[in-house]
Design brief:
By secondary structure, this protein is mainly α. Among the domains are: 160 residues, no CATH class; 71 residues; 68 residues, Lytic transglycosylase, superhelical linker domain (Methyltransferase, Methionine Synthase (B12-binding Domains), Chain A, domain 1); 161 residues, Lysozyme (Orthogonal Bundle), CATH 1.10.530. 69% of the residues lie in helices and 0% in strands. It contains 40 helices and no strands. α9 runs antiparallel to α11, α13 runs parallel beside α17 and α36 packs across α37. This is Lytic murein transglycosylase.
Length: 691
């Protein structure tokens, strides 16, 4: 650390003295000293990096062998001693401890010491849970119980171990012999402590699925005391049903010996496997609290088995169910909301009339907003639906914009206010007023000298992890750092990240700080040269392509979605392969998409392909990039060339795609503003097209 502080000090001195005399021998000497210092720091770091990787290799070899080697560990210890000032010393300590854990070559004292010294790593890896398992295996009940009181939330396995230890302690004290008692049909004596333990186990058994084997003795004793009642089995079964725990519910049924209870459990299993069985369940089962819970939860699944465009859509049969099962007013309301959500777009005139009447009665914002979007693409009256919105929802920029559109007398005043805000609808308001859309950016402070010293160890750690391409690990350290920082510190740290080209971390910093107005940090000029290179001879602007990447990945080059979209521009492997073939570009597999340059190369090529289909129209290109061209075709077919730009965007039925298009257009403009490009809110093709 001293060398690095000296380096900063020398740099400051060099800058100050250089203003006095450019030819001074002292400056040349200082410059040479600075360069030498920099080279020494770099060489030292490179040497440490090699030793760190070697240490990890030795640990992995031990793990692969499956046994602890004193000879290898001796070398690990020597390497560790050479790395005490290496930025990743915490990672070294954890790697050593983790290997010893895997090989059962560690004491509880070592674990407890590590937890105290490195709380973030310990919490992340749930290290405080390990001593319980170790003491349990050693049957050290008193140590286990004393320690468990200091631990926060226990895992299910460790809760079993704690209670098993309590049970064993009580059993030893009371000299319990469950086998003999069961054979002779004798009652077992219960101490107050044991009775309390069994009461706790009641709730635990009901609220968890299959329990670990460490609970077996206590569970058997609890059962032998006659505490596994029919009502408790039913309570557990309902909870398993609600969480869709099919395997656990099946196991519960297999362990049951009661014939009538078995029939009920079989009905539950059938209802879980076949949601449309609900109507038969309702006909067969009596009204009670547990069956009522099942009916309430099963209704949503049941509705999904019905086709959206079914004929004779009618809530009346379900109103009868609601009365039969004595549903409360709020529960009936929830059923109606679910019913309307399922059949909202049903074209039966009688249903549509009933739907609109129910919307006026329910005043449920999610349904009212959906009806507003329908009214927009149908070009019908909006005021009827706007008045139904709650004050909070009505205050959204989107609905203020549409209020202005539907009430000409208030339009100018509403648009003037909207245009002073940040976002897509303020942009539309400025466009409608025919005035430039202005952005006011807050000042961004750098880290102070004191803050730099405070955060330096963790920032060095992040830098080294990123140098080793361990981006996920670096992000974890970054999040830990941000969690302990104030708002102003988060902003300064995000600015620091931006200066290091840690684009994804800068963005993450603004997310954690909720610093939505700090656009230069939220939208860094990431990989600018590579975008320019790959956009040559393409009719796609750099700001638009960067806006797509920013929306897709927040500049996380390792991002991977649940649909397996990968990298900066979130390309599906199939799309990447097709794009590469069509454009004579290189693509060898998913790994290529984790490379920023290749991802940008393929992503921009795909944007250019979409531009061929939707020339100079970012709205349709962005919608197709997100939801697929086939869906865009469907939405355009529905609109039938009748909608203006704002109407088409507002009526996109997918929440994700609608927000995606709005964000991309806003980000594009922000990028233009931030990096001195020609300001274009919307292109002529976008504005004048009828969608």
């Amino acid at each position: 650390m001293g060398k690095k502080i000296l380096f900063v000090y020398l740099a400051m001195c060099l800058s100050a003295w250089a203003t006095q005399s450019q030819s001074s021998p002292e400056i040349e000497k200082l410059k040479l000293q600075w360069q030498n210092e920099q080279q020494n720091i770099y060489r030292q770091l490179e040497k440490q990096r090699v030793n760190f990787l070697l240490l990890e290799t030795l640990l992995r070899e031990m793990e692969r062998e499956g046994k602890f080697s004193n000879a290898i560990f001796e070398r690990v210890v020597h390497l560790e001693a050479m790395l005490l000032d290496y930025p990743l010393i915490e990672e070294i300590k954890w790697a050593i401890l983790n290997t010893k854990l895997k090989l059962n070559a560690i004491s509880q004292e070592e674990i407890l010491h590590f937890i105290k010294q490195y709380p973030h790593i310990a919490k992340r890896n749930k290290l405080e849970q390990f001593p319980i398992e170790m003491w349990y295996k050693q049957q050290k009940w008193s140590e286990l119980l004393a320690y468990s009181d200091k631990v926060g939330e226990l895992s299910v396995a460790n809760q079993c171990r704690v209670w098993a230890a309590q049970y064993q302690s009580q059993a030893d004290k009371l000299q319990l012999n469950p086998e003999a008692a069961q054979a002779n049909n004798l009652a077992q004596p219960l101490s107050p402590e044991l009775a309390q333990l069994l009461a706790k186990f009641d709730d635990f058994w009901i609220n968890n699925g299959s329990l670990p084997s460490d609970c077996a003795n206590l569970e058997a004793f609890w059962r032998d005391q006659g505490l596994k009642t029919e009502d408790k089995v039913k309570q557990k079964a309902v909870k398993l049903w609600i969480t869709n725990a099919k395997a656990e519910l099946s196991q519960l049924a297999l362990n049951n010996q009661d014939v009538e209870l078995g029939k009920w459990l079989a009905d539950l299993q059938k209802l879980l496997a076949e949601p449309n069985y609900l109507q038969h369940f309702i006909a067969k089962q009596p009204l009670n609290d547990l069956n009522k819970q099942l009916v309430l939860h099963a209704f949503t699944k049941f509705l999904k088995t019905l086709p959206e465009q079914m004929q004779n859509v009618d809530f009346a049969p379900y109103q009868t169910w609601a009365e039969q099962w004595q549903l409360s007013e709020n529960q009936v309301r929830e059923w109606k909301i679910q019913f309307l959500q399922r059949f909202f777009d049903n074209t039966t005139p009688q249903f549509q009339q009933w739907r609109d009447a129910q919307l006026a009665e329910l005043k449920e914002d999610s349904l009212t907003e959906r009806r507003l979007r329908m009214a927009i693409w149908q070009k019908s009256d909006l005021n009827r639906w706007l008045v139904l919105l709650s004050p909070e929802t009505r205050a959204k920029a989107e609905w203020r914009y549409w209020l202005a559109k539907s009430q000409p007398a208030q339009q100018a005043a509403i648009f003037q206010q909207l245009a002073t805000e940040r976002g897509f609808y303020p942009m539309l308001a400025a466009q409608a007023l025919g005035q430039p859309y202005q952005l006011v950016l807050p000042a961004i402070n750098k880290l102070t000298e004191q803050q730099t010293l405070k955060f330096k160890p963790q920032l060095n750690r992040i830098a080294e992890l990123r140098a080793l391409k361990r981006l996920s690990a670096a992000k974890i350290v970054w999040l830990d750092l941000l969690q302990a920082a104030s708002f102003d510190e988060k902003i300064a740290l995000s600015n620091f990240a931006l200066q290091q080209d840690w684009f994804d971390l800068a963005v993450e910093g603004t997310i954690q700080a909720k610093a939505w107005d700090y656009l230069s940090l939220r939208l860094p000029n990431a990989y600018s040269d590579w975008f320019e290179l790959n956009l040559q001879h393409k009719k796609i602007t750099k700001t638009f392509a960067m806006a797509i990447a920013r929306q897709e990945s927040a500049w996380n080059a390792q991002a991977r979605s649940h649909a397996n979209a990968i990298g900066l521009m979130q390309l599906l492997p199939t799309t990447a392969s097709q794009t590469a073939k069509a454009n004579q570009l290189s693509y060898t597999g998913e790994k290529d998409l984790l490379d920023p340059f290749k991802n940008i190369m393929l992503g921009t090529a795909h944007l250019a392909e979409l531009n061929e289909t939707y020339p100079n129209n970012r709205i349709l290109i962005a919608a197709a990039y997100n939801a697929g061209p086939h869906r865009v075709s469907r939405w355009l077919e529905r609109a039938n060339g009748t909608l203006a730009m704002d109407e088409f965007i507002a009526s996109i039925p997918f929440v994700e795609t609608r927000g995606y298009v709005q964000n991309v257009l806003a980000y594009d403009y922000y990028y233009q503003f931030l990096y001195n490009e020609t300001l274009v809110l919307f292109t002529r093709d976008e504005r004048e097209r009828r969608y």
